[in-house]
Write a structure and sequence with these properties.
There is one protein chain. The protein has about 200 residues and is α+β, with helices and mostly antiparallel strands. The chain folds into 2 domains: about 80 residues, Glutaredoxin (3-Layer(aba) Sandwich); about 100 residues, Glutathione S-transferase Yfyf (Class Pi), Chain A, domain 2 (Up-down Bundle), CATH 1.20.1050. Helices cover about 50% and strands about 10% of the residues. The chain has 9 helices and 4 strands, in the order βαβαββααααααα. It has a 4-stranded mixed sheet, covered by helices on one side. The chain is globular.
């Protein structure tokens, strides 16, 4: 199993977290997005990362990759076993994509207006998420799940993106620290990602 991954891409980071959580044998191939390898262009029509390759199977999109890994290697399970809860988790992930993660590229933009607009939306959305954490341990009740995996790369990059959360988000930041302290979280990061928080 090979994961084509960019060392600073939050979506690649998400897939690396799942692979490390599963404790599997895999190879991470670091991709420079400004100088993409030719085989990645052949494997992925978007020539983007992350891309997972296992024998004849080629998967793109972080959510699809992570669900495949979770089903293929069921321990520890990151998507709920119950169909109703699994459907809710997928809805949450879809909402996260549309409300939060769609702005990730803009947060890295050199255009100040684009970056500032993205920061405002992401900050407001994170503030709205805080009440969930006041009532439960993780985003999907008391179990660490794919929702927490998806959120972790963004929360790790808050300082890097120059996002300032108000004091009312203190429980969200404590939740983030709890995720960062998971045994394999640090191992799933590239050196560039580690340097985003000093």
């Amino acid at each position: 199993m090979k994961l084509y991954s960019n060392s600073t891409d939050p979506f690649s980071h998400r897939c690396r977290i799942v692979l490390f959580e599963k404790g599997m044998d895999f190879e991470v191939i670091d991709v420079d997005l400004s100088n993409k390898p030719e085989d990645l262009s052949i494997l992925s029509p978007y020539s983007d990362s992350p891309v997972l390759v296992e024998r004849d199977l080629v998967l793109t999109d972080a959510n699809i990759i992570n669900e495949y890994i979770d089903e293929r290697f069921p321990h520890p399970q990151l998507m709920p076993a119950d169909p109703v809860m699994r459907a809710r988790a997928r809805l949450f992930l879809k909402d996260f994509e549309n409300q939060l993660f769609v702005h990730m590229k803009a947060l890295e933009s050199s255009e100040k207006s684009k970056k500032d607009a993205a920061k405002k939306i992401v900050t407001e959305t994170l503030i709205q998420l805080t009440p969930i954490i006041t009532k439960q341990e993780y985003l999907l009740h008391e179990e660490y799940s794919m929702l927490d995996v998806a959120m972790a790369p963004l929360l790790w990059r808050i300082d890097h993106y120059e996002i300032k959360l108000p004091n009312s988000c203190s429980l969200l930041l404590k939740y983030a620290d709890k995720i960062f302290k998971r045994p394999l979280f640090e191992e799933a990061m590239s050196p560039a990602e580690k340097s985003m928080r000093l």
